[in-house]
Design a protein that fits this description.
By secondary structure, the chain is an alpha/beta fold. The chain contains 13 helices and 13 strands. It has a seven-stranded parallel beta sheet, with helices on both faces. Strands 10-9-8-11-12-13 form a six-stranded parallel beta sheet, sandwiched between helices. Helix 1 packs across helix 13 and helix 9 crosses helix 12. The chain is globular.
C-alpha cells in the first residue's frame, strides 16, 4: 500500500503529527527504544509541532519512558501482541504519521515515514519469525514516503533487499549519543584491567569471539554487561577464563558510564549491526574501542577506533595489545571524544523534523 497524499497545498507545522510509539510495548531495553525516546522528548519540548499526538501501546514494556510534555497522548485498546501487526486507524488525512516499528496507517495520510534500523532478521533468523517480520517491514518500506535509515550501511541493505524502492525515498539520519549521561566518570577507580562486552550474546553478536580474545590476554579480565548470564554461560566463562570475568546484569546508565570509564577497552566484535550506539557511548566516556571492520562500524568510528579486518581472536588480541602504548591509547581516546561530538540527538531530531515539514 502506497501512502496517499491529501490534495491541496503542502501541510505546515500546524497539521497533526502522530508518533506511533509501538516500540515502547515491544522492547524493554535497546537501541530502537532509546532512539525513539530521544526523538519523542525532543519533539515534544521543541514546541515546533503544537498538534503533536503520541500513540502509546496498551501495555508498556520500556524500562524508562521519555518526558511526554508537548503531546496529546492516546493509549491503544488492542493488546500489543496483536496491535504491533495491524494498521493504525487513527492516522488519517491531514496527518504526518511516523512509526517506530513498521506499522502502516489504515487510510491515506499526508506523509508516512518509517524508521529502518537493520536487517538482522533477514540475515540471521529462520522460520515464521523471519517471514512475518520481513513481510511487515517490506509493506512499511514500500508504502512510506520516506524510509529513515540510521546508517548508510542500513540504507544499502534496504536498497539491496528492496531494489524496487526509489533511492530518493530513503535517507540517512545517524543516531546520537547523550553526553550529559555518557562522559568520563571522575569517580571511577583503577583496578584490574578489563575488556568490556555489552548487550545480547546471541550468535552474530560474537560473544564467543570476545571470550577467545581475552583468553589470549592473561593480564586482562572480561566484564559482561547485559542480560543475566545463564548457568551454562557462567560455567563456560569459568572454564575458559577462570577468575577473570565479572557479570554486570541489567545495569543503569550511571553504572554503564562507570564501566566504560574504567575499562581497558570496549570490544564490539559483532558480525553485523545497523548502527552500533555503544561505540559512541564508549568514546564519549573516554574508553578506547576495538570493533569489527564491517557493516556500519567504519562509518560510526571513522579513524577513532581500532578495527579488526578478520573475525579472529588473534586479530582482536593484537589490536588490544596496541593499547599498552600510552601515547597511542591517549591519541585514540582524544580521537574518540572528537568523533562522539559529531553525533548528537539534537541534530538527529532536527533532521527528522525537516522531513515532517
Amino acid at each position: 500500500m502506497m501512502a496517499t497524499r491529501a490534495t491541496g497545498g503542502a501541510p505546515d507545522t500546524s497539521d497533526r503529527l502522530i508518533l506511533d510509539s509501538i516500540i515502547f510495548g515491544l522492547q524493554r531495553f535497546g537501541g530502537i527504544s532509546n532512539f525513539w525516546s530521544r526523538l519523542v522528548e525532543a519533539t515534544g519540548k521543541s514546541g515546533v509541532f503544537p498538534a503533536a499526538e503520541l500513540l502509546l501501546p496498551r501495555t508498556l514494556r520500556a524500562h524508562q519512558m521519555p518526558d511526554l510534555t508537548g503531546f496529546s497522548v492516546r493509549r491503544e485498546t488492542t493488546p500489543t501482541a496483536a496491535a504491533r501487526y495491524l494498521p493504525v486507524p487513527s492516522a488519517s488525512r491531514g496527518a504526518t504519521f511516523h512509526t517506530s516499528y513498521y506499522r502502516t496507517p489504515f487510510g491515506p495520510v499526508d506523509r508516512y515515514l518509517t524508521s529502518v534500523y537493520d536487517f538482522t532478521y533477514e540475515r540471521y533468523f529462520e522460520g515464521w519469525s523471519k517471514r512475518v517480520h520481513h513481510f511487515q517491514k517490506r509493506n512499511s518500506i514500500l508504502a512510506a514516503d520516506m524510509a529513515i535509515c540510521n546508517s548508510a550501511s542500513t540504507r544499502a541493505d534496504l536498497l539491496s533487499y528492496f531494489p524496487q524502492v526509489d533511492p530518493a525515498r530513503t535517507c540517512v539520519v545517524p543516531h546520537g549519543v547523550d553526553q550529559q549521561m555518557f562522559y568520563p566518570d571522575p569517580e571511577t577507580q583503577p583496578g584490574r584491567p578489563y575488556v568490556l562486552f555489552i548487550g545480547q550474546r546471541v550468535g552474530y553478536k560474537r560473544f564467543d569471539l570476545a571470550i577467545s580474545t581475552v583468553e589470549r590476554l592473561p593480564d586482562i579480565a572480561l566484564a559482561v554487561a547485559g542480560p543475566h548470564l545463564t548457568q551454562a554461560e557462567k560455567a563456560h566463562l569459568e572454564l575458559r577464563l577462570p577468575g577473570r570475568w565479572t557479570e554486570h546484569a541489567a545495569v543503569s546508565s550511571e553504572k554503564l558510564r562507570r564501566l566504560y570509564s574504567s575499562a581497558y577497552a570496549f570490544v564490539f566484535p559483532s558480525d553485523y549491526e545497523g548502527f552500533g550506539l555503544p561505540i559512541l557511548e564508549a568514546m564519549a566516556c573516554g574508553c578506547p574501542v576495538v570493533a569489527a571492520n564491517r557493516s556500519s562500524f567504519p562509518e560510526v568510528t571513522g579513524t577513532a577506533a581500532l578495527l579488526a579486518d578478520a573475525q579472529d581472536p588473534d586479530a582482536y588480541a593484537t589490536l588490544l595489545r596496541r593499547l599498552e602504548n600510552e601515547d597511542r591509547r591517549n591519541e585514540l581516546i582524544e580521537a574518540g571524544h572528537r568523533r562522539a561530538d559529531l553525533f548528537n540527538w539534537d541534530s538527529a531530531s532536527a533532521q527528522i523534523w525537516e522531513l515532517y515539514r
